[in-house]
Every structure is written in C-alpha cells, then in structure tokens.
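Sequence, structure tokens passed on for absentees:
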Amino acid sequence: AGVKEDSFNVLDLAEYTKNRPWWRKVFSSSSGSSAEKYNVATQLVIGGVTGWCTGFIFQKVGKLAATAVGGGFFLLQIANHTGYIKVDWKLVERDMNKAKQQLKLHSSGNKMSPEVKSRVDEVIIFLKKNVILTGGFAGGFLLGMAS
C-alpha cells in the first residue's frame, strides 16, 4: 500500500539562462559596454570568431540559395522552351512593375514602424557601446566570407 511518487525536476529555461552569465554579459542590452568587462584582445577574439563563423555560414548558405534560385529559373526556362509549361510573361512583367511601384512608394516615405525603429535604435546603441567587439566581428565576417 506504499505507493512511491516519482519526483520530477522542472527546468525553467528562462531562469536557467538568467543564471548563465557569459551570454547575458556580452549581449544583454542592459549590461552596458563590453569594454567594462573584457580587455581589448578578448573583445577582438570574441568578435572575430563569431564574425568568421557567421561569414563562413553566410557564404555557404548564400551559394546554396543562389544555386537553388538559378537552377530553378534555368529549369523553368527549359520547361517553358520545351512546352511543358506556358509562362504568361506579360502577367509577370505587370506584377514586377506593380512591385517596383510599391517599393518606390515605401522607400520614398522612409517611414519605419515603431517596432522596427526601436529595434534599430537598440542595435545602434549596442554597436556604439561595443565598438571593438563590433570591429572584430566585421573583420571576422569578411574573413569568413573570403574563406
């Protein structure tokens, strides 16, 4: 008659990440400048490594995306030429012109939604506070794109 209850530990990921300092110290908006916590060499290494990884991945994904888009367009041209599909090019041209007009209309006003503007402002503040980290990231990103 002794039923043993199993006890489970629940892991709250939000609390778990709050207790892990390195990510929040480097990238938290409330953490201030990384110059207050890390020396110049550490900031350059962190920025350079993350930039290189990002650039390398961006380059590989970019090549894959370009190949997929180009290959898809090439297959559509072959299918159109051989008669498997019929493309209404006048409709395509009309839709492209409509999209161009909408882009011109949106870009001429330069109106950003408040959500986007607040995010852009947060990024600019982070970049200004962490100039060395940002410079390391930019250099690493370019090296990653080149490799």
About this structure: The chain has one domain: 36-146. The chain has six helices and no strands. Residues 103 and 109 are 10 Å apart (CA to CA). The chain has a mean pLDDT of 78.
